[in-house]
Design brief:
alpha+beta, 21 helices
Length: about 575
């Protein structure tokens, strides 16, 4: 071969390699090789994949998983509760936060849970019809399906309807959670009929059928928003709630709407993070945490020094949560201040790196004195769409009542309002007037669905856990940012501080005996927990090789469903 021919051949070869590389990049660099779903229940994860395999996107799958969780995990979420949907669309880069949080009934009053002496009556804000806010989750599912999904709502709800009609498997988690509320559930005839057998909970492995919720879901599928908030379902709900001591009216239901809000956005180490705005307190707290810690050389700190500054940051953001945050449609919040890196710098300056700051030394709030309820799931589809969704009924099995004929428990989210300034709710969180009860207002929440949009990795993350949600998401996301796998991030033991009570709780294995001694010497009060908490769900798409990791918290490994399926399994 002549030198000219050889050079020509080499040039053609180089061009082929270049074009091949460009083709591969075009195919994979911005498109995952798989889809991933991480949810708290394998049956719900399967519902999401069933919809993806029918041509749905991550948002259709989110509706399917949301509805299925409401059937198979009634202790944690469902049609009688609310939730937050954080969605990122790959085609145009749009990210939207859908607020489907519950709302106070129009007849609600500021002091409705205080007794004649002005003291909170906790039983009325957590049990029975008076504890229930107007549900938002059905409206949220409809909005997601109609504005962002590809499939009819009827198709996305079909797996949940099938689970309700044909039966679902009662899990170890169902059994553990009902133990907290069986006595209260027995006081609601419809709840007792649905969840108890001769006064006792079902056995693990039993099959439960729920034709009532199937009928409610079918009306939602056929009629959309009106299928829940008007007509037969609305009348049935109002009748049941009022019979249980509540104050709902049909007008409460007819006026409810899920709301689209702009998510909070910030950068940390050059990575874009999108998270929940108010009425979630979680996003604001997450921004503050990362901005406070961005001023420290954390990579150079030993574990005790790092835990010290993390705990001090937690203390300060939970104080801000208590003072400033509430429903943005009702209160003016100093968000520009709270989200400012300069404000974070001021908080950082108040941290002594060798000594704990007692919470009582921080001004502005009265000093006063957790769980696996709530549900989160994360989805990344094979087109790169992302959904991070957290939904709840508050305490296990919510208010522990079922309106006859509906098949789902009603929330007790009214307890998430500040019943009285400085008085803690069921999770020990305190609040002030910004989160006071008002008609139509949405209570402050700790739910923190979050999406990471990095140059190399994309992730969706969130967890249940009441007041601990924020710190769990923070610690899990920190590990992802440090390069950990999704599986390692969901499994790592956790610590938590929430300003009041002024103590550091820790999961077994989170701190060594030496670390506990060192932190105690610095002035921290530590209260190690004998049991784990939370149920973190993470999906990570590694853009470098197109792989997708879907990891569910191993604390409920018998039940949770983290799974990825390659493109060939989905696009058959």
């Amino acid at each position: 071969m002549s030198i000219h021919a050889r050079l020509h051949s080499q040039a053609l070869g180089a061009l082929a390699l270049l074009l091949g590389g460009l083709w591969t990049a075009a195919l994979w660099a911005d498109v995952p090789k798989a889809a991933g779903i991480a949810s708290q229940n394998k049956q719900a994860t399967a519902a999401g994949f069933a919809v993806l395999e029918q041509g749905g996107n991550a948002f259709d799958a989110a509706v399917a998983v949301s509805a299925a969780l409401g059937v198979v995990e009634p202790e944690s979420s469902g049609l009688g509760g609310g939730g937050f949907f954080l969605l990122h669309r790959a085609s145009d880069g749009k990210t939207v936060f859908i607020d489907a949080r519950e709302a106070a009934p129009l007849a609600a009053t500021r002091d409705m849970y205080l007794d004649a002496a002005g003291n909170p009556d906790r039983s009325r804000s957590v049990n029975g019809g008076l504890a229930a806010g107007i549900p938002g989750l059905p409206a949220g599912m409809v909005l997601v399906a109609e504005r962002y999904g590809k499939l009819p709502l009827k198709q996305s709800l079909a797996p949940a309807i099938r689970l309700a009609r044909e039966g679902f498997v009662w899990s170890a988690k169902n059994s553990a959670m009902i133990g907290f509320r069986a006595e209260q559930l027995s006081k609601s005839p419809a709840a007792a009929k649905l969840f108890l057998r001769s006064g006792k909970p079902p056995a693990v492995g039993d099959t439960l059928r729920n034709p009532d919720i199937a009928r409610v879901l079918e009306r939602l599928a056929e009629q959309g928003h009106q299928g829940f908030y008007a007509g037969v379902t609305a009348k049935t709900l109002v009748k049941g709630v009022r019979a249980a001591g509540g104050i709902w009216t049909e007008a409460d239901l007819s006026r409810y709407q899920a709301v689209e809000r702009e998510p909070l956005r910030f950068e940390y180490r050059g990575q874009q993070i999108l998270t929940a705005p108010p009425p979630s307190s979680g996003g604001v707290a997450l921004v503050e945490l990362f901005q406070i810690l961005s001023g420290y050389p954390l990579a150079d700190f030993d574990r005790v020094a790092r835990k010290h500054v993390e705990i001090e940051a937690m203390r300060r953001v939970y104080r801000d949560r208590a003072i400033y945050l509430g429903d943005p449609d009702f209160v003016q919040m100093p968000l520009d201040m709270l989200l400012s890196p300069y404000y974070a710098a001021g908080l950082r300056a108040s941290i002594h790196t060798g000594k704990a700051t007692p919470s009582k030394a921080l001004p502005g709030i009265s000093a006063t004195q957790e769980g696996n309820d709530t549900s989160h799931f994360s989805i990344i589809d094979a087109d790169g769409n992302v959904a991070a969704v957290t939904q709840s009924v508050n305490l296990p099995f919510g208010a522990a009542i079922v309106a006859p004929g509906t098949g789902f428990v009603l929330n007790n989210e009214m307890d998430d309002f500040s019943v009285k300034p400085g008085v803690p709710n069921a999770f020990g969180l305190i609040g002030e007037d910004a989160n006071a009860i008002e008609p139509g207002k949405r209570p402050l929440s700790s739910m923190t669905p979050t999406i990471l949009l990095g140059d190399e990795r994309v992730a969706a993350i969130g967890s249940p856990g009441g007041s601990r949600i924020i710190t769990m998401v923070f610690q899990g996301l920190s590990m992802i940012l440090d390069g950990s796998s999704a599986a390692d991030a969901v499994a790592a033991p956790r610590i938590h501080h929430q300003y009041q009570p002024d103590s550091v709780s820790s999961e077994p294995g989170a701190l060594s005996a030496e670390e506990i001694a060192a932190l105690t010497a610095r002035g921290f009060t530590l209260t190690p927990s004998e049991r784990p908490w939370g149920n973190l769900q993470i999906v990570v798409w590694d853009k470098r090789d197109g792989s997708v990791q879907a990891a569910s918290d191993p604390r409920w490994k018998e039940v949770s469903g983290g799974e990825s399926r390659d493109r060939g399994m989905i696009y058959r």
